[in-house]
Structure formats: C-alpha cells, structure tokens
Amino acid sequence: MELKRIDNLWHFFATQNQLFLKKEIDNKVLYVFAKNKIKIMHSFNPRFTAQSSLCIGPESFEMAVETYAASQKRFGMPASINRQQRVFFPKELLKLTSRFSLIVEKDRFKNFRVTLEPFAPKNIKETSAPINLISETLWAFRYFSNTVKN
Q1: What is the pTM of this model?
Q2: Is beta strand 64-70 parallel, antiparallel or unpaired with respect to 101-107?
Q3: For residue 85, which phi and psi values (nearest 5 degrees)?
Q4: Which single residue of 30, 51, 72, 74 could bond 43 by disulfide (Cβ 3.0 to 4.6 Å)?
C-alpha cells in the first residue's frame, strides 16, 4: 500500500508539472526528475520505506569539496554540535532539520547538492514543501507548481 501511494505521488507530480519521470527498480526504487537542469532523485528500500533519501542538485554536480551535515532534531535529545563545520549555504535550509537529517555539499564550481534523510512522502504538501524551499533558496524557482492542492 505504501509503495503504491509513493508511486502515485511521483506520477502525480510528473503529470501536473509536465516533467519526465524516470523510475528504476532494483534492490532500491529510484525516481528521477529533471527541471531547469536541477535533478531530484528519491531512492528508498521497498521493503523498509523509512530507509529513504531525497537528493536535489544540478545535473552537472561534480565531487563535493565542502560538506555540511546536520542530524534531525529530536525532542529531549541533546544536539551534537560539531564546531568545525562551517555553514556555507543559506541558513533558511537549516529549518529542514526539524523533520530531516540534512547533508549539503558544494563542488569546486560552487554548485550545491542537498540530501534529506529519511524522506518518506506521505502527501502532496509534505512532499513539495521541502523541495520547493530548497529550489527557491538555492536556485530562485519553484520546482513544483503551487497551484496543486490536496
């Protein structure tokens, strides 16, 4: 049931936004979109959908030279702070740590790639909100249309 819901969600976004959806099934299920040379990849284990990640970044992204990682905030658990990490990206993205673990990478051409874990889409709003926040903050456009309502 969960797999069908995730599949329907991504097909809905592809149809509503006139995007080509590439789907690969192996040990992991992989969905790939591309819009304005920005690629979204959602991969997950079909047997355990909580093992999932969403990666958004330019198609031309090369090997990362700078990385920032922040774990998901949990109630009652002290945050482990690594004072060596430098925030080299817009701070608006740190809002995502309330729901996801965040990994931001930068390559030598100053391209950014953001990975969210665990990313288990439940509905249209929960799926599009973090993606649109990232794309508006880093690339100044909405990845998914805002006219889509649930």
Answers
A1: 0.83
A2: antiparallel
A3: -75, 135
A4: 30
